[in-house]
Amino acid sequence: MIVLKFGGTSVQNAEMIDKALDIATSHLERAPVLVSSAMARVTDGLVEITKAATAGNEERAREILAQQRAHHFAVAEESLSGPRLERARVRLDHCFAELSSLVKGLSLLRECTPRSSDAILSFGEILSTTLVALRAEERGIETELLDARDFVRTDDHFTSALPLFEPTNRLAREQVKPKPGKLIVTQGFIGRTESGATSTLGRGGSDYSATIIGAALGAEEVQIWTDVNGIMTSDPRVVRDARTIDRISYNEAAELAYFGAKVVHPSTIQPAVETGIPVLVMNTGDPSGPGTAIVERADGKGLRAIAGKKGITLIHVASTRMLNAYGFLSRIFATFEKHRTPVDLIATSEVSVSMTIDNSQSLSTIVRELQEIGRVGVEEELAIICLVGQDLWKEPAFIARVFGALKDTPIRMVSLGSSDINLSLVVPGKMLNTAIQILHGEFF
Ligand code: ADP
Ligand code: ASP
Ligand code: MG
Question: From atom 12 of ligand 1, which residue's Cα is the shortest distance away?
Answer without folding.
Answer: 263
